[in-house]
Design goal:
elongated; eight-stranded mixed β-sheet; Aminopeptidase; binds zinc ion; alpha/beta; 12 helices; about 500 residues
């Protein structure tokens, strides 16, 4: 095991550019926004037959010989919870550095990053009147705590964030706001995308209207008595109020009492607290390109995970996908033309500080990322291939399509924005992104909850994901044409849904 330290081999050092990179939105894994998507309906680029044969071989080896489940098992068992800045986070970095040693890579490095620290503490939420009940709840990541004595206030239920925004402070002041928005399961987790702003921005919107606390029906599709966490972002200049998720059956309980005649008084006691910052690292592994080493094909996955579960689905699976893809590519008879780099990003969940630092240092170092792919969607099979790529690159995706037919992955859409959260900063700098869409139908049963454990991972489906990532990576790392650059995407505001992740 190597200590957690900077051991970069030429990856730069500074955070200077980080300040100019704006925070992208933080949304569910692999969701993409709907800005002008167009079906990929173009003449495929005619890749050479021998290149397609190599990629098909790689795909089939992934299906038959890869073992991404073992990677998830190792990470979730030997490390488990690994929230940014925690002891688990440091153990995860050491685990990753150690794991990559066996992969026949050309370079391995830990790129040091400052990450926020936050401690969950205890979350106690009770209905005091009319019918006393204790509710299963968890604090949202980044939430402040209450005074030791807690707070007591009447509850104001709203169906969603938009409704809350429309209310006057007369209605809201002095209340605990309850955002009671159900989400339904679907392959693209569209409801989560639509509702997550309520979690992220709800506390500040409520506080700006005088609310003293916020509770939210968990953004999950299960009916377990477990709540789903996720980060909140407090707006500058607005009072900070404590915020927590209720499990679905407890949100039902609260709703039933609110349906009665009497006012409902809720008591919140949270000992959550922010603790400044800590040292973590992006873990980087690289297979150097044979003929075009300066052109990087990037495979990203966040290494951190919430503290409640063991980070098996989110994001042990994504870590496994990029590690197994790298292992397969490193075992090919020769190196690909371009460099294939995997980055296991620090701190996706609490603030994207790893992704921001990586993009800043990369820009400062003048690196060229030709195209990127992120893995952060659990273990559901890929059901469609999309891309956030310039229009002229659509034929390149179409040229890869025959390789994906045996995996039952059709071509989907070219989009102008969306993709993985950790790659959003690079995308803003012009990097195109290939976005395989994993089936998220069951992901939100477990996502960000104590139920995110290894038994929820589907080993067979995960092999299909690795097979697709490996085949696509081999093609784009060796194909002659480049993907070009995306136009400046400053139009994507920080509030806009569109980047992937949590
Ligand atoms: Zn994730």
């Amino acid at each position: 095991m190597r200590p957690l330290e900077e051991c970069a081999h030429g990856w730069g050092r500074t955070l200077a550019i980080a300040a100019v990179l704006m925070l992208p939105s933080s949304l569910p894994a692999q969701t993409v926004n709907a800005a002008a998507p167009r079906p990929i309906d173009v003449e495929p680029y005619p890749y050479p037959a021998d290149l397609l044969d190599q990629a098909a071989d790689l795909r089939d080896r992934a299906l038959n010989d890869s073992n991404p489940f073992a990677v998830v098992a190792s990470l979730s068992t030997e490390v488990g919870p690994r929230l940014a800045g925690s002891a688990g986070d440091r153990a995860a970095v050491a685990w990753a550095l150690s794991y990559l040693q066996d992969l026949k890579l050309d370079r391995i490095a830990a790129q040091g990053v400052q990450v926020p620290r936050w401690e969950r503490g205890a979350t106690q939420i009770r209905i005091l009147t009319p019918s006393p009940q204790t509710l299963a709840a968890v604090a949202f990541g980044g939430s402040i705590g209450t005074a030791e004595s807690g707070l007591e206030a009447p509850v104001l239920r709203v169906p969603d964030l938009e409704t809350l925004r429309s209310l006057s402070s007369d209605r809201v002041a002095g209340h605990v706001v309850f955002i009671d928005k159900r989400i339904e399961r679907s392959p693209d987790a569209a409801d989560y995308s639509a509702a997550v702003a309520g979690r992220i921005h709800g506390p500040s919107v409520a506080a700006s209207l005088g609310a003293v606390g916020l509770v939210l029906r968990s953004l999950g599709t299960d009916s377990n008595r477990l709540a789903h966490t996720g980060k909140v972002i407090y707006q500058d200049g607005v009072p900070r109020i404590p915020a927590a998720a209720l499990s679905a059956p407890d949100a039902d309980m609260l709703a039933r009492q609110l349906d009665g005649e009497n006012a409902v008084i809720l008591q919140l006691r949270l000992t959550a607290r922010r603790l400044g910052s800590a040292r973590s690292a992006n873990v980087i592994g690289e297979i150097q390109g044979r003929t075009r080493p300066e052109e990087i094909v990037l495979l990203g996955a966040h290494l951190d995970a919430w503290d409640l579960g063991t980070g098996a689905l989110d994001n042990g699976t994504g870590v496994a996908v990029v590690i197994e893809t790298a292992r397969l590519i490193a075992s090919m008879p020769e190196r690909p033309a371009r460099t294939v780099r995997i980055v296991l990003f620090a701190d996706e969940e609490m603030g994207l500080s790893g992704a921001r630092a990586y993009a800043a240092r990369s820009a400062e170092g003048g690196e060229t990322h030709m195209v990127g792919m992120e893995a952060d969607g659990g273990s559901g099979r890929i059901w469609r291939l999309d891309g956030v790529v310039p229009e002229p690159a659509a034929p390149l995706l179409a040229g890869i399509a025959p390789l994906l037919e045996p995996l039952e992955i059709p071509l989907g859409m070219v989009r102008t924005s969306g993709g993985g959260a950790d790659l959003a900063f690079l995308q803003k700098l012009g990097m195109p992104e290939i976005t395989p869409r994993q089936d998220l139908s069951f992901y939100l049963d477990y996502h960000h909850s104590a139920n995110d454990t290894l038994d929820k991972v589907d080993p067979e489906a995960l092999r299909q994901v690795v097979a697709a990532y490996a085949a696509i990576t081999w093609m784009v790392a060796n194909g002659e044409p480049e993907f070009g650059r995306l136009p400046d995407t400053d139009a994507t505001s920080a509030d806009e849904p569109g980047t992937g992740a949590d």
